[in-house]
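Margin note: ligand = nicotinamide-adenine-dinucleotide.
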Amino acid sequence: MAERKISVGVIGTGWIGEIRAKVCAGHPLVESLHLAEIDPARLERVARETGAKTATTDYRELLRRPDVDAIFVSTTPETTHYPITRDCLLARKHTFLEKPMGLALKEADEMMAMAREAGLKFTIGYTQRFNPKYAYVKKCVRDGTLGVPVTALVSRNVSRSIGNKIGGRIRLSPAVMEATHDIDFILWCLEGRRPIRVYAQSVYRIMEQAHGVPDCTWIMVTMEDGTAFTIGAGWALPPGYPHFSTATIEFVATEGALLIDDSHRDIVLNTMKNGMVLPLSTMPGEQVGHVYQGPMRAETIHFIEAVALDRPVLVTPEEARQVMEVTLAADLSAEIHQPVSLPLER
Ligand SMILES: NC(=O)c1ccc[n+]([C@@H]2O[C@H](COP(=O)([O-])OP(=O)(O)OC[C@H]3O[C@@H](n4cnc5c(N)ncnc54)[C@H](O)[C@@H]3O)[C@@H](O)[C@H]2O)c1
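Resulting structure:
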């Protein structure tokens, strides 16, 4: 298909939707931007700052526009992901859905079938695949530098502001909301191998009283070829830079290993007002003057280009469904204190 400009809609212009909208607004392949947001003040501000062509509080109005080719679904609470995405696909829009893909596997199955039957691009926001450090691990596995994978570890802690933000709107676990990024990353690196068993443990000490959710979950996944990896995800760090995230990655294989520092401790800002903080330390990143720091801009552009230039999406819905199955198994395992075998029974 020849290159053509596209019109893009963003549904939900909170923290993440605003980033998506601003990247779209500045991209030469985007003809026009259309926004839907139920908070009128937020809608008005983001529409003004992006020069959006239309803005509505009813996303169905946006979906009725025949000129809109593609949609970012960036709404919360996460119960909105499935019904809004289903409406987007029914309206024959190419759709980018933020993680998690849905709350139940049957939702994922239905959306995947709809996209496939209608020939639409459908992808899920696993943003860290667009972080060069993470892409480097994938590259070194793919080109043979590391040999055959043996084991991997991702330990991530984020600040309580995230746990409180998520816990304040919905009772979803660190497995479904946070570990999901790192499970996707390692499964992507281990492409071609299937996860067969999940064991997880959660700790309840801080967030339970306010939100009924654990502070952290540690998840061990075994693949069919015997490779085993561990993901730790916690959201109990004290406040610091808003939405601070720190991660350590170890990827060990037969011919080599990669040890990656994604701790975000490389920039220290010290002010009389707030003391020391670690700026530019969120997972999606942020705009810094004329440049964007972090992976979300590249991810957003990737989807724009996939639609406008008819290129494949990097994150397939089948992969996202597999990640979802592992996160659901992790929650179940943590609850019953037993390993859980995959595939999960429907
Ligand atoms: N990829 C990443 O790195 C990353 C990081 C953070 C969050 N996320 C995901 O992105 C999604 C959005 O997170 P957020 O932090 O921006 O949330 P948010 O709460 O800041 O924003 C969500 C917005 O959706 C709006 N909304 C809700 N229902 C709507 C509807 N029916 N129509 C239009 N707008 C509606 C809300 O008013 C709100 O402004 C979440 O599902 C989250 O899991 C991804």
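The pocket of nicotinamide-adenine-dinucleotide is lined by residues 11-17, 36-39, 42, 59, 74-76, 78, 80, 98-99, 125, 127, 283-284 (CB under 6 Å).
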